[in-house]
Design goal:
Alpha-Beta Plaits, Malonyl-Coenzyme A Acyl Carrier Protein, domain 2, 281 residues, five-stranded mixed β-sheet, 2 domains, alpha/beta, two-stranded antiparallel sheet
Length: 281
């Protein structure tokens, strides 16, 4: 995950800030492992968030202009809010920690989760969910890519039922029922944990990953990040909102999943995934 970045001063400074706040040896796990530590429920989100912000800052230091707009899928929106300087990196890490703590207290260990489905349309997915009312549609990633959230026993049954007609489906390595109403009762406690972080005005507009609307207020953007843990992501709507600002975009983070996902939604958009310190140059 850190390949090509370990000698970059800006990237290292950002990673060091996250390590000081969390107490996690993120750079060691990224470079040397063990991979189980990097993929652990509490560690992986912090690593992904911090690496995304660190890549953005490094590319900016290398000459990338200030964006005219930004967004992110799921936790990627936390990265966008930090990149826009609405809140510091530590606030987004505190949001992750509060979400994990409150979820563990409410749901227990291993009782909840998420599953993905590729190759079925929304009508077919909702038809399958009708047999499992405790499951909820949580991510609309495209015309035939979705996630659902809820109790793991019901998720396993749902996956077994839709697998024969889907291209691919399965459980995600997540122990939380993110992006759905199962998380809604946790929001007051999560917000209480974050009351010391006051948002500022973003350096550039942010597009909501929930409905695609543009936001130029810091309070609105930070509130959107918080409530997103209990609200379904609608990435096609977000892509539509971004499309109003232009057709050329850059992805900052590990891998090119968002580039590929966005390309399937709107092939007229140009998305470049910045993976190494040399990519901008």
């Amino acid at each position: 995950m850190s390949e090509g970045w370990t000698s970059n001063a800006v990237w290292n400074a950002t990673m060091a800030s996250a390590e000081a706040f969390t107490g996690y040896a993120l750079r060691v796990w990224m470079k040397e492992g063990p991979v189980e530590m990097l993929r652990a429920q509490r560690h992986a989100p912090c690593a992904v968030l911090t690496h995304s912000v660190a890549v953005y800052r490094a590319q900016r230091a290398a000459g990338m202009p200030l964006p005219v707009v930004a967004s992110g899928h799921s936790m990627g929106f936390f990265s966008a809010v930090v990149a826009a300087e609405v809140v510091p990196l530590e606030a987004a890490l505190a949001l992750i920690r509060a979400t994990e703590d409150c979820s563990e207290a409410r749901f227990g260990e291993g009782e909840m989760g998420m599953a993905f489905v590729i190759g079925l349309d929304e009508r077919e997915v909702r038809h399958g969910l009708a047999r499992h009312p405790e499951l909820l549609l949580s991510n609309i990633n495209g015309k035939a890519q979705f996630t659902v959230s809820g109790p793991r026993t019901a998720l396993c049954a749902f996956v077994s039922e839709v697998e024969p007609n889907s291209l691919k489906c399965g459980l995600l390595p997540v122990r939380l029922p993110l992006h759905c109403d199962h998380m809604a009762p946790l929001l007051p406690r999560i917000k209480d944990r974050l009351e010391d972080w006051a948002p500022g005005r973003p350096l550039f507009p942010l597009v909501s990953p929930l409905d695609g609307r543009p936001m130029d207020g810091g309070f609105e953007a930070w509130e959107e990040a918080i409530v997103s843990v209990a609200s379904a992501v609608n990435w096609p709507a977000a892509v539509g909102g971004l499309r109003e600002f232009g057709t050329d975009f850059f992805e900052c983070g590990a891998g090119s999943q968002l580039k590929n996902l966005t390309g399937w939604i709107d092939r007229s958009l140009g998305v470049v995934s910045l993976q190494t310190p040399r990519d901008w140059a």
